[in-house]
Write a sequence for this structure.
């Protein structure tokens, strides 16, 4: 209770300070009382999540630190439709963003106090190791080499690698075996790119963001784009009539997406796993999916957390 | 570092592409730059203006945008080129302007009286340039030219985002499979760039000494 009073006082001070500065302060000061006030406040959350009020955690845990600070830094992708795609207002939207904000909400952190940092395939481990982000929710495949330097909570979704081709499949590609020696586009440093080269002998044409692959695919400079099915589904959805997934998105791998966090923080990992499994039970998970990736992909069953 | 050492062929793929891009761009860009610099100091106003416009356009456009134009805009205009050729074109377009400016500064460093003397003994513009100005200009132009080539070597890393497997791509690719050695891999790749650029710097020093003019 004391904490709550302190935070109300803090907000009042903040509102006054901002009001003194003029300009946009008007909106800030009028919103502030609503957030801390009545029970209806939870509906302000863009994904309709209820932010926990002053949750209790053991002293010294990451959860206690984050709840105390009232803010969290989350790494996510900024260029992946359905999962993490940054909008004109600078905030990313998608299922990864929803999952990240679910963890934040359980820590008592409202959506507007989350700082989103763009993480690309190659900088996720360094960002976690250096503490530049608290967690990474970025279509992040769990694997053993990554587990040597960081830890994963989850998985919260199992994606799989698939192939996307031009609509009508003019090259007649029926599966990964058909791309041997042919130009296939993907992102340098990603797991799917590595696999299509090492296991299927494709002539990899690598770039730094998946969206760069679309024009070469349209022009026929590459015959396919390969990565996880969910990402490809996003491109199919964004470019109606231009692309299609080989065999209706059939996957040839299992890519369990996990939430990356600092190595050795077992309490935080267990906490996130509990949050995820609770969300499968109470329907929150399905609701978050339907608000984001559910626009294109069928709603999955939440995969059991891998509590290693 | 171990990951880098055990992937020699992959490293060489990246190194080779970086070297070839640098070499081809220099071989095409340097003569073009010399022509452009000649145009900048020529007596024909139209040539001077054309060269100035090109130089300002090319050196003031961010390199990534030049790449973007060649890789994504040209195909939409109906010109679809091989990826490697596109990279060479983008790098050449950008770097030629810097070559031209380096050469022009060399030309300007030759005292104006030299050109006047050459013209007064009856040499035309062409002979004045090739026999009198350029042989003297080359001495002061070598260090800045090598600077441009060093910058070019590092600029080739932009091609990584555009379907070319260069040295930087080696780091990117190996860090996927070796999440525990990311830092070492990037340091190793940075050292690989030094393998190219440090000898270039030494070459500049050597030529500068060799062609030093005692005035």
């Amino acid at each position: 209770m004391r904490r709550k009073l302190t935070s109300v006082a803090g907000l009042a001070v903040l509102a006054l300070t901002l009001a003194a500065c003029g300009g946009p302060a008007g909106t800030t000061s009028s919103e502030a009382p609503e957030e801390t006030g009545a029970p209806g406040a939870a509906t302000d959350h863009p994904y309709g999540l209820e932010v926990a009020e002053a949750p209790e955690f053991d002293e010294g845990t990451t959860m206690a630190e984050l709840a105390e600070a009232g803010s969290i830094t989350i790494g996510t992708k900024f260029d992946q439709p359905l999962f993490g795609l940054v909008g004109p207002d600078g905030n990313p939207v998608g299922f990864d963003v929803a999952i990240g904000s679910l963890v934040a909400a359980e820590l008592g952190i409202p959506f507007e106090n989350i700082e989103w940092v763009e993480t690309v395939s190659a900088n996720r481990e360094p960002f976690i190791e250096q503490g530049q982000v608290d967690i990474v929710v970025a279509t992040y495949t769990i694997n053993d080499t990554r587990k040597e330097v960081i830890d994963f909570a989850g998985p919260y979704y199992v994606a799989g690698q698939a192939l996307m081709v031009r609509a009508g499949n003019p090259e007649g590609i029926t599966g990964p075996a058909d791309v041997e020696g042919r130009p296939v586009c993907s992102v340098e440093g990603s797991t799917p790119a590595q696999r299509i080269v090492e296991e299927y002998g494709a002539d990899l044409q690598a770039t730094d963001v998946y969206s760069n692959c679309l024009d070469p695919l349209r022009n026929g400079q590459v015959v396919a784009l390969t990565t996880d099915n969910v990402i490809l589904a996003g491109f199919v959805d964004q470019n109606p009539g231009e692309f299609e997934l080989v065999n209706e998105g059939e996957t040839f791998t299992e890519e369990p997406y996990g939430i990356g966090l600092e190595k050795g923080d077992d309490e935080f990992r267990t906490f996130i796993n509990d949050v995820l499994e609770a969300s499968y039970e109470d329907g929150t998970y399905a609701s978050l999916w339907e608000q984001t990736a559910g626009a294109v992909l069928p709603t999955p069953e939440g995969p059991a957390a891998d509590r290693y | 570092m171990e990951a880098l050492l055990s992937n020699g062929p992959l490293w060489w793929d990246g190194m080779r592409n970086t070297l070839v891009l640098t070499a081809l761009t220099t071989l095409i860009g340097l003569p073009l730059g010399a022509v452009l610099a000649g145009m900048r100091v020529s007596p024909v106003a139209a040539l001077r203006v054309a060269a100035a416009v090109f130089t300002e356009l090319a050196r003031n456009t961010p390199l990534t945008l030049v790449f973007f134009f060649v890789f994504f805009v040209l195909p939409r205009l109906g010109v679809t080129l091989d990826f490697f050729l596109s990279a060479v074109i983008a790098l050449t377009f950008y770097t030629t302007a810097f070559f031209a400016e380096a050469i022009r500064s060399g030309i300007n460093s030759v005292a104006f009286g030299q050109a006047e003397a050459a013209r007064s003994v009856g040499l035309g513009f062409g002979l004045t340039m090739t026999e009198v100005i350029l042989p003297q200009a080359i001495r002061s132009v070598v260090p800045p030219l090598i600077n441009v080539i060093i910058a070019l070597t590092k600029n080739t890393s932009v091609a990584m985002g555009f379907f070319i497997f260069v040295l930087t791509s080696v780091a990117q690719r190996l860090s996927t499979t070796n999440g525990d050695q990311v830092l070492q891999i990037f340091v190793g790749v940075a050292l690989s760039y030094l393998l190219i650029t440090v000898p270039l710097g030494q070459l500049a020093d050597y030529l500068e000494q060799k062609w030093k003019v005692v005035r």
In short: The mean pLDDT of chain B is 89. The radius of gyration of chain B is 20 Å. Residues 59 and 139 of chain B are 24 Å apart (CA to CA).
